[in-house]
Each structure stands twice: as C-alpha cells, then as structure tokens.
Amino acid sequence: MKNLILTISILALSFNFISAQHLHPSEVSSVILNNFQKTFPKARDIEWEIKGNLYEVEFETGIFGDDHKALYTRDGKLVRHEEEIAKSNLPKTVLETIHRYYSSYRVDDVKRISENRKVIYKVELKNYSTEWKVVFDSQGRILQKRED
Predict the structure, then answer these.
(1) 59 Cβ partners below 8 Å, 6+ apart?
(2) Cβ count near 76 (within 10 Å)
(3) pTM over 0.85
(4) Where are the domain boundaries for CATH 3.10.450.360 in the chain?
(5) 21-78 has which fold?
(6) What CATH architecture applies to the domain 86-148?
(7) Tens place of pLDDT for every residue, the chain, 148 residues?
C-alpha cells in the first residue's frame, strides 16, 4: 500500500512539473514582457510559467502585496487577470447577495477575475462547519457555487 501511495504521489508531482514549466524572464518573449510591464508597472515578486499555449505570471502589487495572476497568449494579448481584493471592494450588489443568502458566513479570499471583457468575483464563504466557493457576476447573481 505504501508503494502504491508513493508511486501515485510521484506521478502527480511529475504531471504538475510537465504541465506547468517555470520560466526565467529571459525565456518570455519581449512582446509579452513589454505588454505586462505596461499593464502592471508596479508588479514585484514576479514568477513566470508556461501552461499549454499560455504564459502565466503571478505577481504582487501594492503596499500589502496583493496577489495577482495574469495569462497572456504567445502574441502578448492579456486574456485573463485575477486579483486579490478586499471585501469592501466588492460591488454593492454582490455584498447584498452574500448578506441575503450567506449572512452566517464570513467572507474570505476575495478575487476579481477579468476575462473576455467580463468581470466576475470569486469568494470563499466560511462558517464553523462549512466552506463555499461562490462565483458572482457584477450584478450579484450567483454563477457557480461548490462546497469546499
């Protein structure tokens, strides 16, 4: 049994290594780097990976080191941006929906995700026994929810 668990663990780690390859900035095309630097001039702690046909960059901004993740195509087009935000920066409509349906939960780990000119919000909601990951649109409608 221990050998089976060890084998599965090694395969899982190998798969992660194959599917996402860390890159040195010199391995990222200048078109992508230039577009990234124009869009996020205050980025720091920058880490690049290639995932399939997309370049993923994780970085921080701001005084408190807000986390970001951005995905670029090979020709330098930003296709997705995910950023950590404060609960207070959620739209009023999202806060109202949370209050209406999840009043006994505390809000944790809030992200604003921009993709294809749409913005959605991913929120972790926790109480003493349950945790939900809920995705909202800007109007406060629940697009997806799953128990975590």
Answers:
(1) 40, 43, 44, 45, 46, 47, 67, 68, 70
(2) 17
(3) no
(4) 86-148
(5) Nuclear Transport Factor 2; Chain: A, (3.10.450)
(6) Roll (3.10)
(7) 444 343 444 444 444 444 568 888 889 999 999 999 999 999 999 999 999 999 999 999 988 788 999 999 999 999 999 999 999 999 999 999 999 999 999 999 999 999 999 999 999 999 999 999 999 999 999 999 999 8
